[in-house]
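User: Structure please.
Assistant: Input sequence and predicted structure:
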Amino acid sequence: MPIFILHGGPGFAHTYLMPSTPIWKKLSKEQPVIFYDQRGTGQSTIKGTCTLEDQMNDLDALRNHLGYEQIILLGHSWGGFLGMAYTARYPAHVKQLILVDSAAPCFRETIFLQKYVFPEIQERRQNLAFAVELGDKEAIKSDTVEKFSMLFYSPEKKDDLISKAGDTAYNYDVNKALWDDLEKFDLTPEIKKFTLPTLVVTGRFDMNVAPLVAYRIHKLIPESKYEVFEYSGHLPFFEEPERFIQVIREFIKE
C-alpha cells in the first residue's frame, strides 16, 4: 500500500521535505513512498488553470498511472487540505489518511499565529511585500526564508533545515491562484462523513497552523486519532523524526 506525500504550500515544491529523507527511507523499506511536485511547482508545469479541482485530478491521474487502486495519503499543511478534498471526492481510492499540521477544512478559517508571535519577522516580510507582488525573485526568496524561520520549536533545527533545504522553489502565482479558488470551499460537511482510519498530527508550537485547527479536525472526523508532538512547530517530521516514524508506522499497521 503506497504512501503518497502531499506537500505544503500552496506554491512550494516537495523539496522542503527532502532534509527529512532518512525517515522517508525508513518508511519506504516497508511500502512505496511517493513524492511529486504539484501543478506549477518544482518540475511540474501549469497547462491551463490551477484550481483545487485541477490538483485533485492531477493526484488521481498519478495514482491511476502508477497502477494503484488504493493509496495512503499523507498531507502536510496545505497538502492536508488537498488530502481531505481528494478523500471526499474519491473515497474508494484512499485506504488511510494522515493529516500533518493541516490547513482547516474551511481554508480561510486556518489560524495563523505568526504575526502575534514574530512581529519583527512579519514587519520584514511586509517590507518585501510590494516586490513579492511584482514577482521579484530575490524578494520571493528572502520572503520564503523569513517564512520558514517561523516554523520551528528548536532554533537549531530551524538553522539545520534552512541550511539543507536550498532553493525551496516557491511559485507565488500558484499560491495566489489556489488561495483565490479555495475561498469557494468548505470541506467541513464532507469530513464528518469519513469512515476511513484517519490520523491527525500537530506540533504543539506550530505558529503556521495553530494546534486548535488540528484538534477541531480530529473532533470532526469520526474515530480519528490525534497526536501532539510536544517539541515541534510546523514540521514534526523534521523536529521529532524518531517519534514521527514510530507514530506513522503504528497507525499504518492498525
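The domain at 3-117+171-253 is CATH 3.40.50.1820 (Rossmann fold).
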